[in-house]
From TrEMBL:
This is Dipeptidase. The lineage of its organism: Bacteria, Bacillati, Bacillota, Clostridia, Lachnospirales. InterPro entries: Dipep_AS (IPR000180), Metal_Hydrolase (IPR032466), Pept_M19 (IPR008257). GO terms for biological process: proteolysis. One of its GO terms (molecular function) is metallodipeptidase activity.
């Protein structure tokens, strides 16, 4: 083993949870904070996710969460910086800072308005998960598998691509996935989803979906929510590796990354309780596949998406 390989993580819910609990991003009792991140993470996507009670005021609440995000980054500017472009990611790496990407998890936030989508882009949002598990103006989530993208949803996708926003299909219905596939002109991602063949739940991806994401040059972020890793009572790093092995076999080592979902999940595989433990997965990947593949999965594959789209 050489020097530790830091990861680019495509999904955590830490900012909203900090806001709800009155915690600080530098050090807290949750699954992610800067004190632990700085040893293992080089790029972190912070998602703004809203509980259903906020849906009637989704735009307003998302704006408030974004303001909180920027206040936390300003408070901790010696360790982390917001990035809008790939060049800014490279600059952050060079200076030893964590590069922070802002995303929205669930298109409820734009309240059926392309202008609000553009406003969020101007506010620094560079990725949007189209739905959560429910349905919204964009389309159906994982709880509505036969509901695809609406006409408005198709307009959202095209607008995101034209702006330079990453399209995220995690939580999207199966029909919605294939609607995105038929329309998208750029690679898209599933920021925090696993293999349905290994763990049979609607939030995970079928083998065909994995192949299609691989074929278009997209990336899948491995999710560490226990229920998406294994349906068995016992669950540990070996179960996570089953997903990684399977996705590599079905797709390739070019399609995998990390989307740990920390602070959006309560239950993790044994030994992977918080961000400080992710290196264990990277080490296991390196043992099985070598350092080149470990680096691809840890950060290079997502770097390709950032460089193509941002």
């Amino acid at each position: 083993m050489g020097e530790i390989i830091k990861i680019a993580d495509m999904h955590c819910d830490t900012i909203v949870k900090c806001k709800r609990k009155g915690f600080d991003l530098f050090e807290n009792s949750m699954q992610v904070d800067l004190k632990r991140m700085k040893e293992v993470v080089s790029v972190q996507d912070f998602a703004i996710w809203l509980e259903k009670e906020y849906y009637p005021v989704a735009y307003k609440e998302t704006c408030e969460c974004i303001d909180f995000y920027y206040s936390q980054l300003e408070k901790n500017k010696d360790f982390i910086c917001h990035v809008n472009t790939y060049d800014e990611i490279l600059n952050a790496r060079e200076s030893g800072e964590i590069a922070s990407i802002l995303s929205i998890e669930g298109g409820e936030a734009i309240e059926g308005s392309i202008e609000k989508l553009k406003y969020f882009y101007d506010k620094g949002v560079r990725l949007m998960t189209l739905t959560w598990n429910y349905k919204n103006e964009i389309g159906g989530g994982a709880g509505f598998q036969d509901l695809g993208l609406t006409e408005f949803g198709k307009e959202v996708l095209k607008t995101m691509e034209s702006l330079g926003m990453i399209v995220d299909v995690s939580h999207l219905s199966d029909k919605g996935f294939y609607d995105v596939l038929s329309i998208a002109s750029k690679p898209f991602i599933a920021s925090h989803s696993n293999s349905r063949a290994i763990c049979d739940c609607k939030r995970n991806l079928t083998d065909d979906q994995i192949r299609e994401i691989n074929n278009i040059g997209g990336v899948i972020g491995i999710n560490l929510y226990r229920d998406f890793v294994s349906l068995n009572k016992e669950c540990g790093i070996d179960d996570v590796m089953k997903h990684i092995d399977h996705i590599i076999n079905v797709g390739s080592d070019e399609v995998l990354g990390f989307g740990c979902d920390y602070d959006g999940i309560d239950d993790t595989p044994d030994g992977l309780f918080d961000v400080s433990s992710v290196y264990k997965i990277v080490d296991e990947i390196e043992k099985r596949y070598g350092r080149e593949t470990a680096e691809k999965i840890a950060w290079r594959n997502f770097d390709r998406i950032y460089s193509d789209i941002l």
